[in-house]
Specification:
Structural class: alpha/beta
Distance between the termini: 35 Å
Largest sheet: 5 strands, parallel
Shape: globular
Order of helices and strands: EHEHHHEHHEHEHH
Strand content: 5-15%
Length: 197
C-alpha cells in the first residue's frame, strides 16, 4: 500500500491512533510505501519548485524520523516500511540522528540507534547520480535498496536500470537492487496462467 508522509493535518505516522494500522500491516506482511503527497512546510518553499525538490525529501526524512524515534520498528520488528526518493534526506545524513540519540536523553527513545532501525526499512534508488546511489547503498545496505523511477512524475528518470549499472556495483548488488530486493519485500510476482477448459 502507499501512504503519504503524515496521516492528515496534525496527525503524524507515529500517532498512537494508528497503532492498529501498523499492527495489521505487520501481521499481513504488507509493504507500506511512504511517498509524499504535498508539502507541509509552508510559503518558504512556494518558489522555484522547492516544494518538490526540497520539500518532498524533507517530508520523507521527517516521516521516517518519527517512525524510527517513536520505537515503532522495535514494537513491530517485521514491519515492511519502504520509502520513495532514497528515503529523503535521512539516509544521507543519519549520522546526525545517531549523534542526537547518543547525546540527548529526549532523543534516546529506542534500544538501537536510529541508523540500525532505519536499515530495517527499504528505500528506492531514485537519487539521481551514481555517487549518491553508492552513498545510499553504503548507508542503507545493498539488501535494502530497490529500483526506483518516480514514474510518471516529472522528477522521475527515464532509465533507472542504466543509472544502476553505471554505479559500478558488483553483480550481486546490481541484481539485488534491480529486482531481488523488491521480490523479497513484495513476494513473488503472480504469473498469469493460461485458462484451461
Amino acid at each position: 500500500m502507499q501512504i503519504s508522509t503524515s496521516a492528515g493535518p496534525g496527525r503524524e505516522l507515529d500517532d498512537p491512533s494508528l497503532a492498529d494500522f501498523w499492527a495489521a500491516a505487520e501481521e499481513l506482511g504488507a509493504a507500506v510505501l511512504i511517498h509524499p503527497w504535498g508539502c507541509t512546510l509552508g510559503e518558504r518553499l512556494n518558489a522555484y519548485y522547492l516544494f518538490n525538490s526540497v520539500g518532498n525529501p524533507t517530508e520523507t526524512a521527517l516521516a521516517l524520523s518519527r517512525i524510527v524515534f517513536s520505537g515503532l520498528l522495535e514494537r513491530h520488528p517485521r514491519l515492511k516500511i519502504w520509502s520513495a526518493h532514497g528515503g529523503g534526506y535521512l539516509a544521507g545524513y543519519m549520522v546526525r540522528a545517531d549523534h542526537a540519540w547518543a547525546a540527548r536523553s529526549d532523543a534516546h527513545t529506542t534500544a538501537e540507534p536510529p541508523s540500525a532501525l532505519l536499515r530495517r526499512t527499504f528505500v528506492d534508488s531514485l537519487v539521481y547520480t551514481t555517487e549518491q546511489l553508492r552513498h545510499l547503498v553504503g548507508s542503507m545496505g545493498a539488501s535494502q535498496v530497490t529500483l526506483g523511477s518516480d514514474y510518471p512524475f516529472d522528477m522521475g528518470v527515464v532509465d533507472p536500470v542504466d543509472r544502476l549499472e553505471a554505479a559500478g556495483f558488483d553483480q550481486a548488488t546490481t541484481d539485488a537492487i534491480r529486482g531481488g530486493n523488491a521480490a523479497r519485500l513484495l513476494g513473488p510476482i503472480p504469473t498469469v496462467g493460461t485458462a484451461h477448459s
